[in-house]
Design a protein that fits this description.
Length: 271
């Protein structure tokens, strides 16, 4: 049997098994995985810490006990927090019916442990054996996981891309839409229209979503709420917590605790 290769440079397309998995502790690897693609679809699961996945038209945040689904043959890059412990699940395109677009999924404790178990098995496990049967159940469970809204739409339009890159690098930048319009040489009205046209969100809502994604990543990495609020340019932790609670219904700490305890499948979809 093929030996186990738990490394970030492993090529998942070397095997045609329905699904295989890797278990990666990023204390042992670079936290930046450059743009790449593979035939198999990929679920990036955060066991601890967090990871941000980027594709051409968006950015997905993966907080603890959630996963981002990336369809096969889609170029993507990953940026993990320094304390991240991740699991990768690679799925053959025709093995199960999964979305043809990126999305963030809650992951149940049972599914999480099945993926971690699979990561320890030989890559060429035999048809009909114990691991093969487990994979069939694993894939059945995977399609039941509910979607979470940790997505930041990012357009290929050069002006929107420029804003996204600048605000990702300096999320404390509080420039208004009018100031951004002046900076990138368009009218405020044109930029407002372009933002909605390219991302489906107003500038204010888009920047808030960026802040939520960064906040979840930082707090999952162990950054304090106060330090996170300062990083995002809020006048006080209270102002930041108010924004977060208004957007997601809970304080940042309670929200992440809920994600760690949740991730249950939506069995109503089987009826």
């Amino acid at each position: 049997m093929q030996p186990r290769h738990n490394s970030i440079d492993f090529d998942p397309d070397l095997t045609a098994r329905p699904a295989i998995a890797l278990d990666l502790n990023f204390r042992d690897y670079s936290t930046e995985i450059p743009v790449h693609q593979h035939r198999k679809g990929q679920l990036v699961l955060a066991l601890h810490g967090a990871v941000t996945c980027q594709v051409r038209d968006g950015m997905w945040m993966v907080p603890p006990n959630c996963g981002v689904w990336i369809p096969g043959d889609l170029a993507h890059s990953n940026h993990a927090t320094a304390n991240a412990h991740l699991a990768y699940l690679f799925v053959e395109p025709d093995a199960v019916s999964l979305p043809d677009h990126c999305c963030t999924l809650s992951v149940s404790p049972m599914l999480r442990e099945m993926i971690r178990y699979l990561a320890q098995q030989p890559l060429d496990y035999p048809d009909g054996g114990h691991t093969d049967r487990l994979v069939r159940v694993l894939l059945d469970e995977l399609v039941l996981m509910r979607q979470e809204d940790f997505h930041l739409p990012v357009s290929d339009h050069p002006k929107i891309r420029l804003m996204a890159e600048a605000l990702s690098a300096d999320p404390a930048d509080r420039s208004t839409l009018a100031q951004w319009a002046m900076r990138i040489a368009v009218s405020e009205r044109s930029l407002a229209r372009l933002m909605v046209q390219e991302t489906g969100l107003t500038f204010g809502r888009w920047r808030q979503q960026l802040h939520l994604i960064i906040a979840l990543r930082e707090i999952a990495a162990g950054t304090s709420v106060q330090a996170t609020s300062e990083m995002l340019g809020y006048e006080s932790p209270t102002a930041f917590i108010t924004m977060f609670k208004k957007a997601l219904g809970q304080t940042p700490t309670r929200y992440l605790q809920g994600l760690e305890q949740a991730g249950m499948p939506d069995y109503s979809r089987t009826s």
